Amino acid sequence: MVDGSTDAIVELFNEDALMSFLRPFVLQATAEFPEVLASLRARLPVDDGPIGVLGGSLGGAVALRILTNTGISVFAGAIVNGAIRVRSVVDLFPGDYTYDTESEKAADSLDFVAKAGTVAARAPLLVVSGELDHPALRADDPPPTADPLAIAVTTTDREREPEWTTRRDHIPDPGARDRRASGSPDHERLSRRGSPDAGDRPDN
Q1: Contact 170/148 with Cβ under 8 angstroms?
Q2: Of 85, 96, 169, nearest to 134 (Cα)?
């Protein structure tokens, strides 16, 4: 924001959506993260143990890059409607983007499906996609055997090969709220996922 306006952002992505805007955003945020984390730890009553990372939209690419390109200790990660492949985000901007050697390399470096093994070896990751999120972002998926953008990258044993675990629990449409309130099977399924003993205690 410059003088309370997004004009400077618009100027950057009109100049070159990938090389002037998307890539610098992700790289700068990742580079600044260790110092920001240290500052937060100095100011807040938290220890220096592993952290959780959460990113939404382009922030999802930042969270994923923290997992793949830093040594920061992370116990778990989650991304919501995240930029898993930067090429899909580039396609959201007007006009046809022309890649050259440098931009192809930059796009490859921000393709986190290709780095799924690295992510899985670092920490469990939950990828969340809503039914109304952009189709191009939801379409980014792991190898063809898995469901589109409904994946949790998990590894239960550090000695084993990482694997994709598919999940189809998308964020429901707005009308699902009434179904949940009525105690429908959908509500029962959603409220019990994520913990083996969740069915033994009342829903929150």
Answers
A1: no
A2: 85
Q: How far apart are CA 182 and CA 180, in angstroms?
A: 5
Contact present, 110 and 23 (Cβ < 8 Å):
yes
Taking the whole predicted model, whether its pTM rises above 0.85 is answered as no
Query: CA geometry: angle at 61 spanning 59 and 66, to 5°?
Result: 95
Interval 70-114: pLDDT, tens: 999 999 999 999 999 999 999 999 889 999 999 999 999 999 999
Q: Report the pLDDT value the prediction gives residue 82, as an integer from 0 to 100.
A: 92
Cα separation, 204 vs 109, whole angstroms: 40
Q: Give the phi and the psi of residue 183 in degrees, each rounded to 5.
A: 75, 35
**8 Å CB contact between 79 and 64:** yes
